[in-house]
């Protein structure tokens, strides 16, 4: 499958998440989830993340806050790792999760911070 939005989405997805992550996701793709994966690549990455209205740093902060606020914790580590490419600092992430605490609840922010701390620790260990 190839079209402009898909190709643009794949490019942005690789820039944000890294080749290794995208290669693993692509290798795991099956006929069953092909349509869904295409939707994500075109919609999330080829449209939303490819937009020029706000920076990737800001998109990272918004994405992490929304994941935490809605209790979608599974993707938080992936998006924490992406901050190394988007420019969102640890302080930016902390600020985003503080907003989550106030507007969506302390338990969700607390769990998101726990995941972020563990992921940052893994990232630092891998850098050594």
UniProtKB/TrEMBL annotation:
Residues 36-118 form the Carboxymuconolactone decarboxylase-like domain. One of its GO terms (molecular function) is peroxiredoxin activity. It comes from the Bacteria. It holds the Pfam family CMD. InterPro entries: 4CMD/NDH-1_regulator (IPR052512), AhpD-like (IPR029032), CMD-like (IPR003779), Decarb_PcaC (IPR012788). NCBIfam families: decarb_PcaC (TIGR02425). This is 4-carboxymuconolactone decarboxylase.
């Amino acid at each position: 499958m190839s079209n402009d939005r898909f190709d643009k989405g794949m490019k942005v997805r690789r820039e944000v998440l890294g080749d290794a992550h995208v290669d693993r996701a692509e290798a795991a793709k099956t006929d069953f989830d092909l349509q869904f994966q295409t939707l994500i690549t075109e919609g999330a990455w080829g449209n939303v993340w490819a937009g020029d209205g706000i920076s990737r740093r800001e998109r990272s902060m918004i994405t992490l806050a929304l994941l935490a606020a809605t209790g979608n914790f599974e993707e938080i580590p992936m998006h924490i790792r992406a901050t190394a490419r988007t420019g969102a600092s640890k302080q930016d992430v902390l600020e985003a999760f503080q907003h989550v605490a106030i507007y969506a609840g302390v338990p969700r922010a607390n769990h998101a911070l726990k995941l972020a701390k563990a992921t940052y620790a893994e990232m630092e260990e891998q850098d050594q």
